[in-house]
Amino acid sequence: MQKINFMKLTIPAKSVNEGFSRAATAAFAALADPTVEELSDVKTAVSEAVTNCIVHAYGETDGLIYIDAALYEGGTLKIRIKDRGCGIPDVAKAREALYTTAGDERSGLGFTVMESFSDKLSVRSAVGRGTAVTITKFLKGKAAK
Amino acid sequence: MDITNENGILTVYLTGEIDHHSARAMRERADTELVKRRPKTLILDFSGVSFMDSSGVGLVMGRYKTAAALGCGVQVRGLRPRDRRIMELSGLKKLVAFQ
Ligand SMILES: Nc1ncnc2c1ncn2[C@@H]1O[C@H](COP(=O)(O)OP(=O)(O)OP(=O)(O)O)[C@@H](O)[C@H]1O
Ligand SMILES: [Mg+2]
What we know:
heterodimer; A: 4 helices; B: globular
């Protein structure tokens, strides 16, 4: 699979960057001429992953979020969102729908949403070291319509 | 975000993008009005929403809890199909009326 373009973005874990990071990633994905629906899917999945870094990985502490996106020939988009936060003790459990360690305002649906709006989701995590979430989306694009 | 209160119905018109960042102000406004007005029904109107992630679900769940404690029912309307899909992952349909 030939990589045809990539971008890297490092941002502090501040909630104001949730909107910025999904808009920036969508602007990168737009270079592959995706449909409006595909772009919305990318935005939603990125928003979930970045929010998790801010809410769970770093909590009240400062930290950085590393976003790496690459476009491959044929329209495959891979986005890796990484933090150096607290890590997840049991990834399989965390990925279950409605599982949350946060309070009343979180639904425990972030991973479920990432899965349903992407084609593949991989999660790697180590307690005390951080988490990396890789979202793969096959952009069929307007040409396929 | 506009809010109307008529005949015991408090309607909250949500606008723009709902994420963890923006949900905070929406939640505080809605809860303040709920406690102050004590309506019979709370309507959350999503027709002005251009984006939401699971924070939108959390926003509805949280308002359901505040409202239920005050004996107030909750209705949700104006969801775009993709946002409805996200809401329905939550099982909220058992607690909240979706229109
Ligand atoms: N980057 C991360 N670092 C540490 N813990 C995480 C991270 N991402 C997720 N988690 C853990 O996995 C759980 C499930 O995450 P998920 O996004 O599915 O739900 P949530 O964030 O709790 O709620 P929602 O996304 O619906 O607001 C979280 O409650 C948290 O315990
Ligand atoms: Mg989440």
